[in-house]
From TrEMBL:
Gene3D superfamilies assigned to the protein according to its UniProt record, in alphabetical order: 1.20.120.1630
Chain ranges passing through the membrane: 6-32, 39-60, 66-88, 113-133, 211-239
GO CC annotations, alphabetized: membrane
Superkingdom per UniProt: Bacteria
Organism: Streptomyces nanshensis
Cross-referenced PROSITE patterns: S5A_REDUCTASE
Sorted UniProt keywords: Membrane, Transmembrane, Transmembrane helix
Protein name stated in the entry: Uncharacterized protein
Coiled coil: none
Length: 276
């Protein structure tokens, strides 16, 4: 497919960067007022939603209306659901230990250190990871049968990921709320439902969501190649960055977790392994 409006897309990149920055700066102000930086996790999904909405407005007259609406809706549903879930989960809690450890290493003004290492970094990641969401809305129409099929496949991948993430989060929340959720040794490890098949159904769901959103931008080969960095970065964040690796380090000493880790797939869902 040819005719991608690179000039208009470049303008969109600048405006979307400003939108992501605005979300993070507002969140930074709220965090200083509340005295906790964990609320930046709530802003993660809101940042993607803001970028998708800004792009939807700016891409009018460039991309196909149906594709633009689909991509914006998929991003907003995912982002708003995630932000709402994190906000409810963190209600009434103090600072996240991750941010306590990170900010304890800072020098100089702790506010400026937090702004640089937490808020500006996450704003940049929102902008980078959302490149397919932005580009997909500029791929010219009208939609051909091939692109309809591609958007259908993208939606199916996104939906599978969204179900994994949503159901996994709901199952974990019910487990944490159940005081009887312990085995005979007193261990408290979630190993039911989707968590029986993968130690991180929510992260695996995120992984699928963003590969699905990347597929929406694959109606143009050059655009697909230019935005491939986005799902790759998200995949690394989920598996090697602040996702799976960091969480498992925190859980390593929990009673029963070593046995759970031995029998349960680390990321991709697989049948539980037999252990002695």
């Amino acid at each position: 497919m040819t005719g991608f409006p690179w000039g208009a897309f470049g303008v969109n990149l600048a405006v979307s960067a400003a939108a992501a920055l605005a979300v993070m700066l507002v969140t930074f102000g709220a965090a200083l007022a509340k005295g906790v930086h964990r609320i930046v996790d709530v802003a993660w999904g809101l940042g993607f939603t803001a970028v998708a909405a800004v792009t939807f407005a700016l891409s009018a007259g460039h991309g196909d209306p149906a594709a633009r609406l689909l991509v914006t809706a998929l991003t907003a549903v995912w982002g708003l659901r995630l932000s709402g879930h994190i906000a409810l989960r963190g209600r009434g809690h103090g600072e996240d230990p991750r941010y306590e450890r990170l900010l304890a290493r800072g020098r100089g003004d702790p506010r400026l250190y937090a702004l640089r290492t937490v808020y500006l970094l996450q704003g940049a990641l929102v902008w980078l990871v959302s490149l397919p969401v932005q580009a997909a809305q500029y791929v010219p129409g009208p939609l051909s049968g091939q692109r309809w099929a591609l958007l259908g496949a993208a939606t199916l991948v996104w939906l599978t990921g969204f179900v994994f993430e949503t159901v996994g989060d709901a199952q974990l929340a019910r487990f944490k709320a159940d005081p009887a959720a312990r085995d005979v040794t007193g261990a408290r490890v979630m190993d039911r439902g989707l968590w029986r098949w993968t130690r991180h159904p929510n992260y695996f769901g995120d992984f699928l969501v963003w590969w699905g959103l990347w597929l929406t931008a694959c109606g143009d080969v050059a655009v697909a190649a230019a935005t491939l960095v986005s799902p790759l970065v998200m995949s690394l964040l989920l598996t090697k960055g602040s996702g799976k690796r960091l969480l498992e380090r925190q859980l390593a000493d929990r009673p029963g977790y070593a046995a759970y880790r031995e029998r349960t797939s680390g990321f991709f869902p697989l049948p539980p392994r037999r252990t002695r």
